[in-house]
Specification:
Layout (H helix, E strand, L loop, with lengths): L1 E3 L2 E2 L5 E22 L5 E8 L7 E5 L5 E25 L6 E14 L10 E7 L13 E2 L5 E2 L6
Parallel strand pairs: 2-8
Antiparallel strand pairs: 1-3, 3-6, 3-7, 4-6, 5-6, 7-8, 9-10
Length: 155
């Protein structure tokens, strides 16, 4: 089974979503697609996880809103672990709410070329309501690095 983590991030901030698999047995090939809402999230990076270490893997993130993975293992892969880690930037104008990350599994085969059923998964990026006072400082707030924020300044 595929599991997808969830995360929380304010507009303009980054978050990570992990795509993991459990209970793999002699898996020789896997195709999957990850869908996200590009109105809320911008994909910053995709990092291969430990399950892809001994694979021939291709990640295609050229289509906005979709990440495609095709992976093959010559001698099969067993067990559980990370497939991919996705880094997203929450768009600065993203409204508060939840945005789903959907993983759909296409073809999957074992080392004997038998079809293997692997269920997909769903995660969520939650964009919390920004408090009115978040990022505002009092007059003359000084920081150790010499930065000074004055009334009305925002970060």
């Amino acid at each position: 089974a595929i599991t997808v983590s969830s995360a929380e991030a304010y507009p303009g901030n980054s978050c990570y979503i992990d795509v993991d698999a459990a209970g793999l047995s002699n898996l020789a090939s896997l195709d999957l697609e990850i869908y996200y809402d590009s109105e809320i999230l911008t994909l910053s990076s995709v990092t291969n996880g430990n399950l892809l270490a001994d694979s021939l893997a291709s990640v295609n993130d050229e289509t906005v809103g979709v990440v495609k993975l095709s992976a093959a293992w010559l001698s099969g892969v067993n067990g559980s672990g990370r497939i991919l880690r996705l880094q997203f930037q929450v768009n600065p104008d993203a409204p508060a709410g939840s945005s789903r990350i959907l993983v759909a599994v296409g073809d999957a085969h074992d080392v004997n070329l038998n079809h293997v059923h692997i269920s997909g998964g769903t995660g969520t990026v939650t964009v919390p309501e920004r408090p009115d006072n978040m990022g505002n400082f009092q007059v003359g707030t000084y920081f150790p690095n010499g930065t000074v924020f004055r009334q009305g300044d925002s970060v």
